[in-house]
Amino acid sequence: MASGADPGREVVLETSRLLLRPWRVAEAAVQRELWTERDPRVPPHRRIDAEGRPTVADLEEAIRTQKPSSIGLLAIERKAEGDVIGYCGLIDSGRGPEAEPELAFELLRRVWRQGYATEASLAVLDWARASGYRRLWATVWDWNTPSRRVLAKIGFTETERREADPVHGTTLFTTIEL
Length: 178
Ligand SMILES: CC(C)(COP(=O)(O)OP(=O)(O)OC[C@H]1O[C@@H](n2cnc3c(N)ncnc32)[C@H](O)[C@@H]1OP(=O)(O)O)[C@@H](O)C(=O)NCCC(=O)NCCS
Hints:
Layout: E1 13-14, E2 18-21, H1 28-36, H2 56-65, E3 73-78, E4 84-91, E5 102-107, H3 116-130, E6 135-141, H4 145-153, E7 157-165, E8 169-177
Antiparallel strand pairs: 1-2, 2-3, 3-4, 4-5, 6-8, 7-8
Helix pairs in contact: 1-2
Bound molecules: coenzyme A (COA).
Coenzyme A (COA) binds next to strand 5, helix 3 and helix 4.
Domain N-acetyltransferase: 32-177
Pfam families: Acetyltransf_3 (PF13302)
Protein name: GNAT family N-acetyltransferase
C-alpha cells in the first residue's frame, strides 16, 4: 500500500465538471446500464448472462456490502447535471506487480467523446501520486481505440507485455510512472 492511501477513508475527488465519489445503492441502475451497453467482444463474465444477471438487485447488494477501500472504482457525477455517468478509479487486479494498481474507467455511451474519461482519470492520477504510488498499470483490448486514446492522452505507454485471446482479442499492458 502506498504511504498516503488509507483503506478506511472515503475518497472524493473534484474536477471542473465532475465529482468522483463512492457509489450509492440507488445508482445500481446506472451500473446495470453500463453492463448492458458493453461491447459484444468483452468476455462473458463482464456481460449480462442468459438469466439477466447481474440484476439491479444484485448490483444494489454489491454496493451495499462493498468493503471500504481507499479508492476503488468511484462513481462519476456530473456537477452541473447531477447525474452519474460511469466510474473511474483503481483496482487491485493482481495483474500488475504487487502494490501497483490498475486504472479503470467506463462511461455510459451517451456521454462519450466529451473528455470526461480523460478529466476523471487525470484526477485519479493526481490522487495516486499524492498518495505515494509510483507506478500504475492499465490493461486494454487492442481493438478498444477510445480507451487506448484516453490512456495515451494521460501519459500511459504500452509495454511489451500482451496476452492474446483467440476469441476476444489481445490485451495490451500499459503503464505510467507517476
Ligand atoms: C473508453 C471510454 C471511457 C472513453 O470515454 P470518453 O469520455 O469518451 O473519453 P474522452 O472523451 O476523454 O477521450 C476519448 C478519445 O478517444 C477518441 N475516440 C473516441 N472514439 C474513437 C474512435 N472510434 N476512433 C478513434 N478515436 C476515438 C476521442 O476522439 C478522444 O480523443 P481526442 O481527445 O484525441 O479527440 C469510453 O469509450 C467507454 O466507456 N468505453 C467502454 C469501456 C471501456 O472500454 N473502458 C476501458 C477499459 S480498458
